[in-house]
Design goal:
- By secondary structure, the chain is an alpha/beta fold.
- Helices cover about 35% and strands about 25% of the residues.
- The two termini are about 20 Å apart.
């Protein structure tokens, strides 16, 4: 019997390829188990993942205590997690305070942020989690900081505009590669042993000439965006949302109006079955058929492999 694993499972499986510490691997394996459907076709795979978790736990216990560093994690909230990363005094905390309601410590000296700070970007009827991280530099690049970056949905590098901006950006990208991360735009394709992480770069208070040179230098690989603290933040929020590559769909119960207050957010290209799994895997397994409303007000019955679009309304019928 085939496993018929949902799209979300394969996304987590891809992350597992680049996880480094036993703790990071265990966390991802548990997430994979949580979204795996329960039927005979997945029994062997479920047993295999549980066996790998047990082995990793034994491995973690054997590691010398001196090597066990404090591992900060940030549980995902909202429709996506966006992580800010960069060197000292780049302006990450100010970006967090401007885009969200968070109140991080902001000071004109380095190393103000000692651990991850979290805020929520309000955009239309959804929230996007924004995470500020401690500064990344040659003397400080702990495994947990790379783990947070790899786990993000979008990684935004932040570099201060100065005469050394180009060198600072080059150094940031090099440090990320030490953590198995290759920062790139959504459409860039490169055969790398590193984890391709989608994102872009903010240059805070940029010099216009330097910004133009960096845009030209990295135009194939990365978007370089000048971030002034008096700019239109609505445009930045929209750009982040668009970069997530998601759609919003809405659900309705039989005989009731659609609920537009809490959309179900899916990756572009997701199917009716993916939507059902996003709501609850048991719900997906009991699904009988689905009615779909798109643009006009004429519903139609669709199969589980129907590709959904932004703004679709679905009504699930279960056994």
């Amino acid at each position: 019997m085939p496993a018929n694993l949902p799209r979300i499972y394969h996304k987590k499986e891809e992350r597992l390829r680049f996880a480094e510490s036993p703790e990071e691997k265990i966390s991802i394996l548990k997430e994979m188990l949580a979204v795996m459907p329960k039927h005979k076709g997945t029994d062997n795979l479920r047993a295999e993942l549980n066996s790998r978790i047990a082995k990793l736990k034994r491995e973690a216990k054997k590691r010398p205590k001196i090597q066990r560093l404090d591992l900060y994690t940030v549980a995902k909230e909202g429709i996506g997690q966006v992580v800010l990363i960069g060197p000292p005094n780049a302006g990450k905390s100010t970006i967090l305070s401007r885009l969200t309601n968070a109140k991080p410590d902001v000071a004109p000296y380095p190393f103000t942020t000692q651990r991850p700070d979290v805020g929520m970007i309000e955009y239309k009827n959804v929230q996007i989690q924004l995470v500020d991280t401690p500064p990344l530099y040659e003397g400080f690049h702990p495994p947990w900081l790379f783990a947070i970056s790899r786990n993000s949905d979008i990684l935004i590098g932040v570099v201060a505009g100065s005469i050394n901006t180009g060198e600072s950006l080059k150094k940031l990208l090099s440090l990320l590669e030490k953590g198995s991360i290759f920062l790139q735009s959504r459409d860039y394709c490169k055969d790398e042993e590193l984890m391709p992480k989608q994102g872009f770069i903010f240059i805070t208070r940029p010099n216009s000439n330097t910004l133009l040179k960096l845009k030209r230098k990295y135009e194939e690989r990365l978007d370089i965006i000048g971030f002034s603290f008096d700019m239109d933040l609505g445009a930045i929020k929209e750009r982040i949302f668009d970069f997530l590559g998601v759609i919003r769909i809405y659900t309705k119960s039989l005989g009731k109006e659609a609920d537009f207050s809490e959309p179900v957010v899916l990756d572009k290209g997701s199917t009716v079955l993916d939507a059902a799994y996003e709501i609850h895997k048991d719900f997906a397994e009991r699904m009988k058929y689905t009615r779909l409303w798109r643009e006009d007000n004429n519903p139609r019955r669709v199969g589980v492999n129907e590709i959904l679009q932004e703004g679709d309304i679905v009504e699930f019928h279960t056994r």
